[in-house]
Design a protein that fits this description.
Layout: H1 2-19, H2 23-35, E1 43-47, H3 49-52, H4 57-60, E2 66-68, H5 76-81, H6 83-86, E3 94-98, H7 101-105, H8 112-129, E4 135-138, H9 150-164, E5 170-173, H10 200-210
Parallel strand pairs: 1-2, 1-3, 3-4, 4-5
Length: about 220
């Protein structure tokens, strides 16, 4: 009987993980937090794989304490869904967001306005929970493997920048144009083989642009 119960529990957990994308990533965060819960007043990085894969982000910002809770190849919708686990359980002094690129990549029919609205929803949730802490949005980057989406990224970036300009304690960081050649195509040598995720040279550009806006 006990064996059958364990099998049923395993099946349930497996089904739940499949029904809720990134459940395993979130479970890993929960396990890590249960061992040693992160201290307050860190700078919280959230979003998708460009932050997820920035595993040595602390080395790029040695003067700051970084808590990286980006996960998988998440969308803004995923971050909203898991917000209680990756944002609101902590007491950060600043939040830095990189997300939105995958929202377009995972759906051929998604509208720019939908992605921008998702960001507005996330920002509104953050502001409701943390009324005054600084919020930074790092623009969607011009990934060579997603050239067909670059025009959408440009418009979405502009709309998010315009939206944030209406609020105090916010900053929009434009990494998009810093990663282009003069002819408007993506710079060479900044990405790994998938032409989507960055290497150290790409992250070095981000470090220079982000560093001035991290709170002391």
């Amino acid at each position: 009987m006990k064996r059958i119960l364990n099998i049923l529990l395993f099946i349930f957990a497996f089904s739940l993980a499949k029904a809720q994308p990134y459940a395993e990533d979130i479970a890993a965060f929960r396990k890590k937090d249960s061992a040693v819960f992160p201290k307050a007043n860190q700078i919280l990085f959230i979003g998708s794989s460009s932050f997820t894969k920035w595993t040595d982000v602390q080395d790029y910002f040695p003067k700051h304490k970084i808590l990286n809770r980006a996960f998988g190849g998440s969308t803004l919708a995923d971050v909203i869904y898991w917000s209680n686990d990756v944002i609101f359980k902590y007491k950060p002094k600043q939040i830095v967001i990189y997300c939105g690129e995958n929202d377009f990549a995972y759906s051929d029919t998604i509208q720019i306005s939908t992605v921008v609205d998702r960001f507005k929803t996330l920002f509104t949730m953050i502001r409701k929970h943390y009324k005054n802490i600084p919020v930074v949005y790092v623009s969607m980057k011009p990934s060579p493997g997603r050239r067909h989406l670059m025009s959408k990224y440009i418009v979405a970036n502009m709309n998010i920048s315009s939206y944030l300009s209406k609020y105090k304690n916010t900053k929009f960081i434009d990494v998009y144009h810093a990663m282009l050649k003069p002819n408007g195509s993506p710079l060479d040598g900044l990405y790994v083989e998938d032409n989507l995720h960055m290497n150290a040279k790409g992250y070095a550009i981000w470090q220079k642009l982000i560093e001035p806006y991290l709170v002391k």
